[in-house]
């Protein structure tokens, strides 16, 4: 190694395999004395080298050379961003080779990395702690999750792939939350939007593939609107979201979290500027993510779920139960959607609550009376003229957005109400099916199947899928097919959603539940 100039910097050229100078200004190099090539098993190509006073070549350290070039080369991730950080690496020299030993950690952590553009950089919030990923990190910290934020404003899929090996792969995370937008890909001003759409889709799929190749579970945020959305771009976004729903990947519903379906744009109260959401909008994005998703996502398929055609629960008799079923999510919901199939008795003589959502600020419940379906909350009563006058199977759906205070009701394939209400309900910690707390109207003779709860106000297309028996898992909190065979008091019924809680049969109640007619 005596041919090397002392105290100069060197590196291995990727193209030629030769050691070449990486010397700062002021250092002279004798090019004639450079060796022709080096053994790549001995020298790491990504490292910088220095010749010490003893004339031996070794990996350079900070104190060897105080140049900005050397310091910059040791930056482990994207420099200059608020989330950037440097790391120290333990290495051993074994038989002339540098090795990085694996050490057993003092405690086991579960890692989530958030990989996205400006929204994942916290743009639009008053403080980074109000950004969606910070809110989720706070909620999961007690369960031993470590969260790493890797958002860069303006990133499209090409730039994201370029920095994947620098910012994402070294973290060795368990889960990667992916959040890139078709807007950053350039669709707004593109003359041929189809080309941009296909380019973005291919890039997004490549990112998902990279994440899986590196042993991480991908979770994808679907396309959310901006104030630049038109009816045409909204259609592209919905098309892409529908494709994601059909894939075997878990998806989070950012579209339903903030969209105003009448304008194709975000709800005004959620917007910071024409591209970004404010604190309210980021809170809605956070609420759309079932935090307990991370407990099951590693071993549950993300495909849409088709519930069994057969199987239902019939409430044969009820002596003292004000409600029959309750679902208490591990993490409360703000906005929500709920859906159920039901069959009423031939005579509806008393008002019955089919679905009730209760929590901070009050409740919203959907009643069935002999004069129609009614949505009730403490501030507003939304009456409809939709009447059930037969004993056939029907579907009932409700979507509620906590920001806009809009309630939309679906009966079978029809929208029977779309109203802005004065609801004060801000957080739901209990859902009731077949009755409500403290009711004296005891439900009996009804039959139920396919009870679902989502963490967002789902768009109309998804309700039509539910009517057909197909349930997207996009922000799905609960899917109880109600085809269970064990129906004792206190029974925990099957939940097909990627979450950890169950719909339960009320305890200490005299209820006769039997398998239904299908």
Question: Would you give an account of this structure?
Answer:
The protein has 518 residues and is α+β, with helices and mostly antiparallel strands. The chain has 9 helices and 30 strands. The chain has helices spanning 68-73, 132-140, 157-167, 193-213, 231-246, 254-258, 279-287, 293-296, 460-467, and strands at residues 9-12, 19-21, 49-51, 57-59, 92-94, 97-99, 110-116, 145-151, 175-179, 217-221, 250-252, 259-260, 265-266, 305-306, 313-318, 323-327, 336-343, 352-360, 362-369, 372-376, 381-383, 393-401, 406-411, 414-420, 427-435, 447-454, 470-471, 476-480, 504-505, 511-515. The strands form 7 sheets. Strands 15, 17, 22, 23, 24, 26, 28 and 30 form an 8-stranded antiparallel beta sheet that branches. Strands 21-20-19-18-25-16-29 form a 7-stranded antiparallel beta sheet, with no helix packed on it. The protein has a 5-stranded parallel beta sheet with strand order 8-7-9-10-11, sandwiched between helices. α2 (132-140) crosses α7 and α3 packs parallel to α4. It starts with 8 loop residues before the first strand and ends with a strand. Mean pLDDT is 83; it is low at 1-7, 23-46 and 62-77.
Write the layout of secondary structure elements.
Blueprint: E1 9-12, E2 19-21, E3 49-51, E4 57-59, H1 68-73, E5 92-94, E6 97-99, E7 110-116, H2 132-140, E8 145-151, H3 157-167, E9 175-179, H4 193-213, E10 217-221, H5 231-246, E11 250-252, H6 254-258, E12 259-260, E13 265-266, H7 279-287, H8 293-296, E14 305-306, E15 313-318, E16 323-327, E17 336-343, E18 352-360, E19 362-369, E20 372-376, E21 381-383, E22 393-401, E23 406-411, E24 414-420, E25 427-435, E26 447-454, H9 460-467, E27 470-471, E28 476-480, E29 504-505, E30 511-515
Parallel strand pairs: 7-8, 7-9, 9-10, 10-11
Antiparallel strand pairs: 1-2, 1-3, 3-4, 5-6, 12-13, 14-27, 15-26, 15-30, 16-25, 16-29, 17-22, 17-26, 18-19, 18-25, 19-20, 20-21, 22-23, 23-24, 26-28
Helix pairs in contact: 2-7, 3-4
């Amino acid at each position: 190694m005596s041919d090397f100039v002392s105290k100069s910097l060197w590196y291995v050229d990727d193209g030629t395999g030769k050691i070449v100078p990486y010397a700062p200004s002021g250092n002279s190099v004798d090019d004639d004395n450079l060796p022709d090539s080096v053994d790549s098993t001995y020298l790491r190509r990504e490292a910088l080298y220095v010749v010490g006073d003893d004339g031996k070549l070794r990996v350079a350290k900070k104190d060897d050379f105080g140049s900005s070039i050397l310091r910059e080369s040791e930056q482990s991730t994207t420099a200059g961003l608020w989330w950037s950080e440097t790391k120290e690496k333990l290495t051993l020299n074994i038989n002339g080779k540098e090795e990085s030993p694996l050490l057993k950690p003092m405690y086991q952590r579960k890692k989530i990395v958030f990989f996205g553009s400006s929204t994942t950089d916290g743009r639009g919030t008053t403080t980074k702690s109000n950004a969606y990923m910070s809110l989720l990190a706070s909620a999961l910290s007690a369960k031993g999750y470590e969260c790493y934020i890797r958002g860069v404003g303006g990133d499209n899929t090409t730039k994201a792939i370029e920095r994947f090996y620098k910012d994402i792969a070294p973290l060795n995370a368990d889960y990667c939350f992916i959040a890139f937008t078709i807007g950053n890909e350039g669709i707004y001003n593109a003359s041929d939007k189809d080309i941009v759409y296909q380019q973005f889709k291919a890039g997004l799929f490549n990112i998902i593939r990279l994440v899986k190749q590196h042993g991480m579970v991908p979770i994808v945020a679907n396309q959310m609107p901006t104030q630049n959305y038109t009816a045409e771009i909204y259609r592209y976004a919905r098309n892409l979201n529908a494709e994601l729903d059909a894939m075997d990947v878990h998806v989070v519903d950012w579209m339903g979290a903030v969209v105003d379906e009448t304008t194709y744009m975000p709800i005004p109260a959620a917007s910071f500027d024409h591209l970004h959401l404010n604190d309210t909008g980021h809170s809605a994005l956070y609420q759309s993510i079932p935090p307990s998703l991370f407990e099951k996502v590693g071993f549950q398929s993300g495909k849409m779920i088709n519930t069994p055609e057969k199987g239902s629960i019939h409430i044969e008799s009820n002596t003292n139960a004000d409600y029959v079923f309750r679902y208490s999510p591990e993490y409360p919901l703000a906005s929500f959607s709920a859906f159920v199939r039901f069959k009423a008795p031939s005579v509806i003589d008393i008002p019955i609550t089919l679905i009730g959502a209760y929590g901070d600020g009050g409740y919203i419940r959907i009643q069935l009376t002999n004069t129609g379906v009614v949505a009730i909350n403490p501030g507003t009563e939304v009456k409809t003229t939709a009447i059930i006058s037969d004993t056939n199977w029907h579907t009932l759906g409700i979507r509620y957005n906590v920001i806009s205070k809009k309630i939309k009701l679906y009966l079978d394939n029809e929208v029977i109400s779309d109203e802005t209400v004065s609801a004060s309900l801000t957080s739901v910690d209990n859902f009731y099916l077949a009755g409500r707390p403290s009711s004296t109207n005891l439900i009996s003779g009804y039959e139920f199947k396919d009870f679902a709860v989502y963490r967002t106000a789902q768009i109309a297309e998804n309700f039509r899928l539910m009517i057909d028996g197909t349930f997207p898992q996009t922000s799905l909190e609960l899917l109880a097919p109600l085809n269970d065979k064990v129906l004792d008091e206190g029974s925990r019924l099957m939940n097909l959603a990627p979450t950890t809680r169950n719909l339960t049969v009320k305890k200490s109640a005299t209820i006769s539940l039997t398998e239904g007619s299908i």
